[in-house]
């Protein structure tokens, strides 16, 4: 499993009641699978945990995994290595309580989805090489549409 020390994240945050957050998580997971298939990229989605908890690392990591609070899209780099290209994190009401975001007396829940754009680029180069003519058609189209 590989990790990059520096990376930028493009993030989507969703705030709603618990059932809608859970449904949206499923929608996002299905969307990621569609994107992988459309771009002909090799990867998989797995339940994960954050590596950066300072206090109570073990307890928080177990909680995340036991209650399926974090998912990672692992993009293939080579036969043995993958890298997290995207994560989906459910926060329960942790942030909404801090910011006072509620519906009546009940706090909403939140979810975020973060894309590591540099990681996607790295995985594409690892999977297809540096010759863009060897990239899958959909990736070539994206490059043409955005960069000419």
Summarize the helices and strands and which ones pair or pack:
Layout: E1 9-16, H1 18-39, E2 43-47, H2 57-66, E3 70-76, E4 82-92, H3 94-99, E5 102-103, E6 106-107, E7 109-116, H4 117-128, H5 137-147
Antiparallel strand pairs: 1-7, 2-3, 3-4, 4-7, 5-6
What does this molecule look like?
Strand 5 and strand 6 form a beta hairpin. The strands form two sheets. The chain has a five-stranded antiparallel sheet. The longest helix has 22 residues. The protein has one domain: Bira Bifunctional Protein, Domain 2 (BirA Bifunctional Protein, domain 2). By secondary structure, the protein is α+β, with helices and mostly antiparallel strands. The chain contains five helices and seven strands; from the N terminus they run βαβαββαβββαα. It is elongated, with a radius of gyration of 17 Å.
Secondary structural class? alpha+beta
Quickly count the helices. Answer: 5
The neighbouring-strand order within the major sheet is 1-7-4-3-2
Q: Care to count the β-strands? A: 7
Contiguous runs where pLDDT drops below 50 for at least 5 residues: none
Pattern of helices and strands: EHEHEEHEEEHH
CATH topology: BirA Bifunctional Protein, domain 2
Shape: elongated
**How many discrete domains?**
1
Q: Give the radius of gyration.
A: 17 Å
Determine the fraction of residues in helical runs and give it as a percent range.
Answer: 40-55%
Main beta-sheet annotation:
5 strands, antiparallel
